[in-house]
Structures are given as C-alpha cells and as structure tokens.
Amino acid sequence: NAREAALCEKLNLHALTLEWGSQFDNSRDVAVEEHVLDILQPHKCIKKVAIRNYGGARFPLWIGDPLFSKIEFLELENCNNCVSLPSLGLLSSLKHLAVKGLKKLKSIESEVYGEGFSMPFPSLKILRFENLPEWWHWDTDIKGNVHVDIFPRLQELSVVKCPKLSGKLPELLPSLEILVSKCEKLVVSLSSYPRLCRLEVDECKELVCRTPIDSKLIKFMTISNSSLDMIGCKGMLYDSQAGSSLPKPMTTTNVLEFGKLLEPGFQILETLVIGNSEQLKPWRQGRGLS
SUPFAM superfamilies given for it (predicted)? Predict the structure, then answer.
C-alpha cells in the first residue's frame, strides 16, 4: 500500500527511485498511477529522485514544488503518457536533470521555469533530453520579463534523438562547456557560449556562428551530417587557398574541403572530426567570405 509507505515521514531518506513495469498496455490505469505517485511524496529533505515507466498523464505537483529545495538530481524516464513537465525551474538546488523517453511530450512551455521566478534553474549544471519522438517546441523565451536569467550555471546540455524538435537551443548560456546536439531539425548557434570546450553535433539542420567566439578553449569537436554556416568565427573558418592539410593530432572524415585553421583559434584542440558536411563556406583571411 502506497500510503503505508509514509515516505513523507522519512527524514533520513535522501534518494528515491520509483519504477513501474515497462509494459504499457490496457492493464495500466492512468488515474490510479497518478494517485499513487501523489501519495508517494517523499519528505522535503530528499536529494535524488528517479521516476521510471510511470503511466500517469501528469506529474504530481510535489515534483516542482519549491519547498523541495534540496533536490539535486532528477530523472524522468519512459513516462510514456506524460504530456508536460512540472515547474522544475523552481527547484533551487537542482543540479542534474534528465528527461528521457517521454513519448507523448510535444512541447516544453514557459511554465517549466515557474511563474514569476526571476532565475529559473539557478543551480542546474547538467541538462539532458533524450529520445523524445514527439517533442517539437521548446520555449526558451520567458515573455514579458527581460530580466529573467535561464540556466545561469548550466555546464552541459545534451539534446539527442528528438527528431521533431525545431528552432534554436537556448541562447546566452555563459557557463556552458559541453554541447551535444543530435536532432535533424534543430539550428545550433554557438555565438553565446563563451566557455564551450566540447562540441558534438550530428544531423542538425544548421550549425551557425555569426559573431566571434573564443575558440581557444575548445578541446574536442565532432560535426557530422550538418550544414555549416560559420561567419566571423575566428578559428572555426577555413582558408580556401591554404591547402587541405590539418595540424596533427586533428582528424577529419568525409570532408569535401577543409583548409588550414586560422590562428589563433583552436590552440588546444585535441580532436576534430567532420563527417558528411556538404556546405563549408570558404574564408579568406583579410578578405571575408569568397
């Protein structure tokens, strides 16, 4: 009996995993599972929560309740009937958030940040979205409040296997160091990630850089099956007259044209892989685009 578990009274419980069976069929009762998850609300001292294979259509309010200020880790996985996310931005200590396999999630709206909250996700460092087949819209612009700072401490952003997601990733991520994007309709813009040191892009609609960034920090880069539109990015463009050799230990695969990297960009780059990228716009140093 879920009520007899009395999780809300267990002050010393710091990690909680709630997992249902992986089979989603007519034997599952959506309303019952929603009621059970409501009852299984833990004590507010909880730090780590994982919910897997949950069959309800909504998450309980306690998951986005700001009173749960000690939650640092939250994973929502294979909750196939859920169509929205709670106000997770109100969890002031949340550092790691993973959302995976929510097959009916179509849109992440501004409600996820929390109404009236000036700094959503103030502590979040790792954000991962994976295998969300119907997700097509991510609202990263909180309308009516230009002073809201979203993801101020985010260091790693991963968006993988979200084939319908279009538009752009969040801009102005001052702490972002690792970016992984593998979504074919997504536009990835690098101009607002000044601390980026690892980039993995596969099958994105377009990789864009239109203002200078400090590429001296980048150690690892792999780009595959993507259209490149890089204008004014020191160290990320190439000289069409400089030949085709690359300084070791960099490697490339299936590159149509790639010349000498411009200095002083990529001074500490250890690995560079570019595969199946059919559009590389040439750059002639001192002359602009050819």
Answer: L domain-like (SSF52058)
Collapse the DSSP code of 102 into the 3-class scheme (helix H, G, I; strand E, B; otherwise coil) and give the result.
Answer: coil
Sequence spans of domains, the chain: 2-165
Determine the longest span between alpha carbons in the chain, in angstroms: 74
DSSP 70-100: T--EEEEE--TT------GGG-TT--EEEEE
Burial class of 23 by CB neighbour count within 10 A (0 to 12, 13 to 18, 19+)? exposed
Domain 2-165 has CATH 3.80.10: yes
* pTM score, whole prediction: 0.81
The string of pLDDT tens digits covering residues 73-132 is: 999 999 999 999 999 999 999 999 999 999 999 999 988 998 766 789 999 999 999 999
- Residue 93 CB partners (closer than 8 Å, separation 6+): 47, 69, 70, 71, 72, 123
CA dihedral 103, 105, 55, 78 (to 10 degrees): 50
**C-alpha radius of gyration, the chain, whole number:** 22
**Structure-token pair, residue 275:** 């595969």
Query: What digits encode the pLDDT tens for the residues 43-65?
Result: 999 999 999 999 999 999 999 99
Coil, helix or strand for 120?
A: coil
